[in-house]
Amino acid sequence: MPDAPRRRLGPLLALLPFGAAGAWIAYSRLGIDHRRRMPPALPGRQECLGSDAGGLSFYADGPAEGVPLLLIHSVNAAANAYEVRPLYRHYARTRPVYALDLPGFGFSERSDRIYTPELMTDAIHAMVAEIRHRHGGAAIDAMALSLSAEFLARAALARPDDYRSLGLISPTGFDRRYERRNPSGSDTARAVAAYPLWGQALIDLLVSRPSMRFFLEKTWGSRSIDEGLLEYDQVSAHQPGAEFAPFSFLAGHLFATETGRIYPRLEGPVWMVHGTRGDFVDYRHADRFRGDPNWTLDVLETGAFPHFECLDAVTARYDAFLARLAR
Which residues contact 258 (CB under 8 A, 6 or more apart)? Predict the structure, then answer.
């Protein structure tokens, strides 16, 4: 190629990424539906609760008698109560079961604010208080997935009498963050992510179908993901306000850095299970708890959502843990 055309082509090639970004921003604003019709994630009653954490949505099902079970989904760019669906349907046959949409997700309030562990903990406090009120003040069993296990642990540490037991499925905070003491989260990072020109487009890229499938495959450690979860995540991630909680997630505001000060101080019985596949298998500090009489640790040959892959194995181990409590 002659030198003159080559010199002209160089600047044009340099502009290609900016052109692609501009085209995606335009498509995000004009071509993506951010008001998709969203059906309930779970069967049973769908209810609302006012709280210090804002308006909360939750699901309830099962018989009136028995120790109530609260299920709490994980936190990611498209999180919602569908993530606990297998457990919810299973236990609704034998006991009262509740599933919470955390602030910023599902049908709960999705306002423009900074989402923090304290906000999520306040939501759990409100939900547990409502459940206990409905069931004569009895302590409950509660189970949380992934990052929400940290929020549940904080809630139980603050109000231990609220809980008969805790269940932690693929909990975060047993990796290198276990010993970190520095505060997390960056207001600057959130401001950059949420900048009006590209904020919505950034989230739309993150929750596009190929991207979402990619992250679910990393969660499963396999291509055999749950297709129903993928479809519901697609709808849930395209609602008004769906971008605000992910902005805080991307900026690190939702990641606590003091799990080494929280998990060891839990007073009641704790059941923990995690898998061995995928990107969420760093449990280097879990062995600290294997000799603790209050802790029961199980490991399954699954990804990070074992209740979708082998529900029978998960519930059998959890039921055995609860049976020991009864004795």
Answer: 180, 181
